Amino acid sequence: MRFEVVQGDERLSSHSGFALVGAMLDKTNIRERLNRVVLPGTNAPEISHGEVAIAMSGLLCLGKPDFDAIEPFRNDPFFKQSLGLDSVPSSPTLRQRLDRAKGDFNSIILEESAGLVGWFAPVITPCHGKLVPVDIDVSPFDNSDTKKEGVSWTYKGFNGYAPIFAYVGEEGYLVNLELRPGSDHSQKGTEAFLRQALRYARLMTDAPLLVRMDSGNDSVGNIKVCREEHAEYIIKRNLRQELPEEWLEVAREHGELEEPRNGKQEWWGEDYIKRRGIAEPLRVVFRVTVRTTEANGQILLIPELEVDTYWTSLPDDPRTVVKLYQAHGTSEQFHSELKTDMDLERLPSGKFQTNEVVLLLGMLSYNMLRLIGQESLQKDDAPLQKKVLRRRVRSVMQDLIYLGCRVVRHARQCILSFGRHCPWFKTWQRVYLRFAPT
Questions:
Q1: Cα–Cα distance between 79 and 131 in angstroms, integer?
Q2: Is 437's pLDDT higher than 80?
Q3: Are 425 and 418 in contact (CB under 8 A)?
Q4: Under 8 Å CB-to-CB from 429, ≥6 apart: which residues?
Q5: Helix, strand or coil for residue 326?
Q6: Which of 57, 186, 235, 380 is the most buried (most CB within 10 A)?
Q7: CB 353 within 8 A of CB 56
Q8: What is the pTM of this model?
C-alpha cells in the first residue's frame, strides 16, 4: 500500500509522559526554593532558576542530557504547559545558568529528590527483615578524548570521572551522589558523603538502614559514621598486609567446614578484631575457600586459596551476612541505567561544577522515572509478560514517557486523548491520577 503523507492541524505530542513528570514536580518545592537563590549576574532573570532546572529535568527524563536538545521543545506548547513553565529557556540560557550555579543548587536538589521519594514511593523494599539497604559504590564515567575539567585516569583504565552513588531499597532509589575527578580514591570524602546519605535516606523511610560497601571503602571512619548514625553495616574488608594463609589457620580453628563438591572446601565463621579508635573489638565474618580441583574435575597443581572477610554489625550467621553483601552487586544495574538508559555517562559541559549539577538533576529525573515505573506495577493493568520487582528506566521511558497522545482544548479544559488500541492507556491514566493535583 502506498501512503499519502500530509500534515494536519491536530495538536499531537509524542511525549505524553511530560504530564507525569510535571505532576510530580508540582508536588515539590524545588521551583520556589531555587528561585530564592541569588546567583552572580542574575538578580532578576527573565527565566527563573526553577524553570531552568525543571526544563533540564524534563530533557533528562527523555534521556537527553545535551543542552542543545532543548531547542525543539521551545515551540512545543505541551512541553511548556505540562511542566508548568512560563517560558522555555534557550540552549545558551540553560548552559549559562547552570554554569553560574556553582554548587548553590546542590543541597536543594538533593533534599527535594529525597522528599519526593518519601512522598510517592509505593513501598521501599527491605533486604533482610525490616532492614532497608543503602548501597554505596563508585562507578567511573568514561569521558575519554575530552578536555573537560576533572577528567583524569580512573582505576577502570580510561579517562573520565569517578562519581560515588548511594541507593536506597531493593528498588534502587538514588539518595545521594557526588561527582569526583577520575583519579580520586574511592574513600576520599566518603565519610561525609555516607553521613549525608544516611540523613537523606531518613527522608525516604523510617525503617532501620543497612549500609553495604565494598573493600575500597574499608575504613574505620565509615564504621564510626554508621555507629553514630545508628545504621547497621556490612563492609567488605581489604586484607592489606594480612596473609591468606593466616586466615586459613583461623578458619580451621574456629570455622565450620563444608564440602560443596569434591576438591572444594569452604570454612564459614566469625572473629573479633580490634581497630584503633573503637573501644570494643568488631565482628568479622569470613569465608575461606580451598580448591584442589576445578568444577570440571581438572586437578590443580597448586591449590587455590580464596579469603573473603566482612566487617558487620549484624548478629546473623556468616552465610546470611555474605548473601546480603552479594546482593549489593545489584547496584551495578542501577549505575547502568544512569549511564546508558539516561545517557548520562558523557556529561555535557566542560566545567566540573556544571556537570555536577546536571548529574544531580539527573538523580531527580532518575527517581521520578523509578517512581513512575514502580507505581505502574501496583496493579495488573500493565501489559507485561511476567511479574517483576522493578521496571528498568529505559522501559519506563519507552512505554510511558514516549507514549503518544493528542492534545485537545475544549470548554477551558486540556484533554489528553490516547489511541483506541493503546495498550498502556489504563496504566498511564492510573499513574497520572496518583500524581496529579486533586
A1: 40
A2: no
A3: yes
A4: none
A5: helix
A6: 235
A7: no
A8: 0.94
